[in-house]
Amino acid sequence: MHKSITALLPSLAIAAFLGVCSPGLAQNTGVVPDGPVGLAFQWSLVFEDNFASGSVDQTKWSPSLFWGITSNGSFENLSQLEWYFPANSTVANGVLTIQARRENTATSYGVFNYTSGLITTDRNASNVSIPVKFDFLYGYAEIRAKLPAGKGLWPAFWMLPSDQTASEEIDILEVLGDHPATNYMTYHWGSHQSTGGSWTTSGADYSQGYHTFAVDWTPAAIVWYVDGVERQRVSDASIISRKRMDLIANLQIGGAWAGSPDASTAFPANYDIDYIRVWKKGAAIPPPATNNLLLNSSFENGSLPWSLDVKTGASATYSRDTTTAGEGSRSALVKVTRSSSVDWYVQLVQSKVPLVQNRLYVVTFMAKAETARPISVVVQKTNSPYTEYSRQSIALKTEWTQYSFVFTAPFDDVDSKLSFSLGGQKGKVWVDRVSLGY
C-alpha cells in the first residue's frame, strides 16, 4: 500500500518467547509471550495495547493520518472510497473493532459512500514538533487480529517514518477481502520502489479466526511472520529504513487494487484486533535447554523436591492446583496469607542444583498471579554465604505468561537453589514449567 504523499493528495497542497494463542479465540486468553513466537533472544516489551480499557486509548492512538486530517473526519487516499471517523473504532470485551459501514458522508472533497476507522501511534497533526505517541527504531511488531471478508475490503497493519516524510513503508498485513487467505508483505522505499511477496494459508482463511501477523525489523533485514512462522524476508541492508517508525491499523475500502464492494459484500464489516505489541531485541539466548537440571518441573509428580520456605513474620501455603496450568494438568500454587516487607520471607524453592563454572544457563518458567504484582526469582548458593548468581525482578500478570533469563555461573557449585520470592504481597501465585538448564 505505497503512500507517496504527492500521489495521495491530487487536489491538496502537500501539507507499529513463546506461545501461540488459539486462532479461533480473542480476549487475550492463554499464554501471553514475553517475546515473539519462536525467536530466541532476550526481548523487552516496549509497546502494548490489549484493548482492555473499554475505549480507544488516546494516549496511544490518533484517529487520522497526518496528511488527511480535516475538521470532520479524515482520509487516507482520495482514490479510495472510505472516510475515516473516530467513532468507527470501538473497544469492547478486550477487542478493538474497526468497522466499515455503507453510509454516505458529505465532505469538502465530495460525498463518500462508506465510513471506516483508523488508529495510528503518530501525532494527530501535520506538525513534527508535537511529540509522537509512540515510535521505534528496529524491533518486532505484532498484531493479532481477525479480518473481514468481502470484495472491496482491505484491512492493513503497517508502519511509516514518524518524521512524516512517508519516504519508507513497511506493510506487515494487507489482505484483500475477496482473497481472505492471502497476506501481502511489502517494503517500499525510494522513488516508488518496492519488494516483498505474499503468503496464502492452506487452512481456514483469516476471516475465520484470529491470527498473528508480525515483522522483525533490524538494520540487516526485514522478516515477516504469520502465526509465528517466517513467510517473507528482505536482506539488502542498503535499502532498509533507518528512520523511527510509528504504527497504523486501518480498514480501507475500494481503490484500484482492492476494487469496489459489490452486492456480495456484507456491511457493516469488522476488523477485530486482539492486541498490538512491539518488542525490542537484546542478546541472543541459546535454544531452550534440553537437559533441565530441575526435577518435577511441571508439578505433575507430587510436590517434591519443591518446598516452601516461610520465615517468621509471614504466612503461606504451597499446594498443587489441578484447575489451572501453564502446561499439562497441574501447577504450583502458593497462597500468601500474611505478607512481609521482605519478599524472601516466602520462597518456593528447589535446591541441590549443580552448576559448572563459566557455563551459560537459561532459566524459563510460566507464572501468573491473582492480582498483578512483582516477585523476585533468584539463583544462589543454598547455604552460607548464600551467594547470588542471578536475581530477576518479574512483574507478574493475571494470565499465564512465560518468562526467561540467562546467567553465567561464576564458579562450581554442587548445591545451588532456584527460588521464587513471593512474600512481599498477599494473594495467590501460580508457577509451572520451570526449567534451569544449558
CATH topology of the largest domain: Jelly Rolls
Instruction: Just give the CATH class of the largest domain.
Output: Mainly Beta
Main sheet summary: 10 strands, mixed
The mean pLDDT is 88
Please tally the β strands and state the result.
27
Content of β-strand: over 45%
Number of domains: 2
Q: Taking Cα atoms only, what radius of gyration do you get, to the nearest Å?
A: 25 Å
Shape call: elongated
Note poorly predicted spans. Answer: 2-33
> Structural class of the helix and strand makeup?
mainly beta
Helical amount among residues, as a percent range?
under 10%
Ends distance: 45 Å
Provide a count of the helices.
1
Please identify, by name, the CATH architecture of the largest domain: Sandwich
Order of helices and strands: HEEEEEEEEEEEEEEEEEEEEEEEEEEE
What does this 3D model show about the protein?
The chain contains one helix and 27 strands. It is an all-beta fold. The chain has two domains: 5-284, Jelly Rolls; 307-437, Jelly Rolls, CATH 2.60.120.260. The strands form four sheets. Strands 2, 3, 4, 5, 6, 8, 13, 14, 15 and 17 form a ten-stranded mixed β-sheet that branches. It has a six-stranded mixed β-sheet with strand order 1-25-22-27-20-19, with no helix packed on it. It has a six-stranded antiparallel β-sheet with strand order 7-16-9-10-11-12, with no helix packed on it. Strand 13 (211-217) and strand 14 form a beta hairpin. It is elongated, with a radius of gyration of 25 Å. 43% of the residues are buried.
